[in-house]
Amino acid sequence: MWFSFWRSRDRFSLDELRYLTDQLQKVQIVNEVNKEEVVSFPLYVEAVRFAFHEESMVRTAVRALTLNVYHVGDDFVNKFVTSAPHSDYFSNLVSFFREQCINLSKLVSECPKNPCSESVSAILATVDEIEDNLYYFSDVISAGIPVVGRLITDNILQLLIIPLLFPALQIDADSNVKIGAVTSLYLLCCILHIVKIRDLANTIAVALLYPLEAFAAKSETKLNGFVSGNDCALENEEPDIYSVTSVNAGQLCLDIPNKASSSQVQPEDIITKKKFSHSHLPLRETLLSYVTDGDDVQALGSLSVLATLLQTKELDESMLDVLGILPQRKQHKKLLLNFCVEFGQQALVGEDSGEEQLFSSESGFLRDGVCSELDGYLQKLKEQYGVSCSVAEAGASPCIHRNQVLDALVNLLCRSNISAETLWDGGWLLRQLLPYSEAEFKSHHLKLMKDSYRNCTSILLQETKGIWPDLLITVLCDEWKKCKRAIEASSPRKEPKCILLPFQKLNSEDIPAESSFAAGERMNELLKVFVLLHQLQIFSLGRALPEQPPILPPIDIPEISRARTAGLDVSGPKPGTEIRLVHALPCRIAFERGKERHFCFLAVSMGTLGWVLLAEELPLKQHYGVVRVTAPLAGTNPRIDDKHSRWLHLRIRPSTLPFLDPPKSGTFGKMRIKTLVDGRWTLAFRDDESCKTALSMIIEEINLQSSEVERRLKPVLDLEL
Question: Start and end of every FPL domain (predicted)?
Fold first, then answer.
């Protein structure tokens, strides 16, 4: 009956399948009960045979049915689904999931070679399937069957994390590793974020204390030799009923043999047998090395893993402390609790020695209660998963590990080859760990941050004379609010999949590096970094962070300025505005081939804004004209032609930056900003002197504009360190 039903699935809609599933569950699903034990469960047994069907609709129906079975809450049913051979369904689920992870890694590695929308869509589709699988694992665990939670934990660790994800974090890339480092970092984030199992989270955290060679050795052993404590099938047993090699295998998209009889997984397919040059490093230090020395994507992935660990509620605080990422507020809470237990409440009342001991970073109380839990998980990794190696990290003081993390994060902030977006993620993590007083923050940390901040300030001063000074203050204020919101947030801004598809910047190959658009993006990146360093400086000094940066207000425009003389108000010139042509110079320009027009040229600045204008004289009103064309003054880069001394060349940039007003909708990773090209004006003046006068006028107004921008920025640039 089941076979004919599934073969006719095309006749049913998804809603109809859900209805049929609900109706089937009203049927007597357990056919045989012998001595208070379920011995036959055809509905469940036949359904899970199609758990890996090529049609996602069928897989969804099977998952809905199995979840309903797990939520029945009957002890006999629970015993049936967790006993051999039916328990192999869970190992096969993880095996199927592992193959999806390997496929994702292939797609990610091929995407840079062929960066098209189809590649991005394929990655996103695979990511959706992987996250759906993890949510299914989470739903199964939430049914409350303890054995199932242990089965899923054991299989995720034994089949995926230990043999594949951890070895993939090696610093020296190896072609024999089936999963790349970036994909591994993403998967670790997803597993910790979605699969809410305390033992799984703590085991992963403790495993980060091991050197890579411990997992390299483990990955070279037979995976199918693993036997959980739940009577999973042994290596010499025949394939079970869940092996997808029957006559119906043609209906399935992937062959998932049971773990005990697998012949597809070969040790050399998982990781090479060679000695890694960095295999002595603990995985925790490998993550930190990505932060300090890795590329932008590796740094982002490593930061995401550290942030996810910090945010994982299932992870014991003692494990966070051992990793060196226990948030500062929890450090103080732990110190207080341990101190009270040891010395009693009287130690908190004004005793200098007690207070000094309480808040000392070298306090011995930090390690209270840590060793027993840590030793338990170390023993579990050795006995249950065969990971055995000397772990020097376990005996180190959490203070040492915490300083190592702070070192890595501060060094990250001093790197010039990392994107501002990644630096913001590092800033968020540093904010969580940042001590509340300068005395607790090491002097060399502060020096590095101050030096980086000063360098950034010097470059920012140059931007006041650059192409976009008129937008500099606006962008600065906008990024200030965004950065404050980001680093004060309770969780990181980005989803884990951002690791796989980093945002494509505007200065791509199709945009020249000398264009105003590339310069605008560089300015925006610089402002993001400047704002982050500025705010972290304030935090490190124990000051409150203001809602707005300290910017001076604008001053009144002098009456003798060209803008006032022309009769312009604070709104600036617009096409159709009538102005006085006191300082304007006659010129000619052709916007179309063979169609030359006569205008009066004028350059004006009003505070931080400035324009170049082309106005037509009014025939009935002497010395007055109407503005026909306007363009930003900044970035015009005026230049007299080498061969024609009466010609003045101007670059005309847009009035705003494209990324300040991005598209409001679009698929993740596929948002594209239309490539824009700078305009060009070539103005022909009556004589050489007029051309030189126009050039001097532009330079003078640009200098006035730049000086006003620098004046208003002075308070934010003069942060007292």
Answer: 35-70
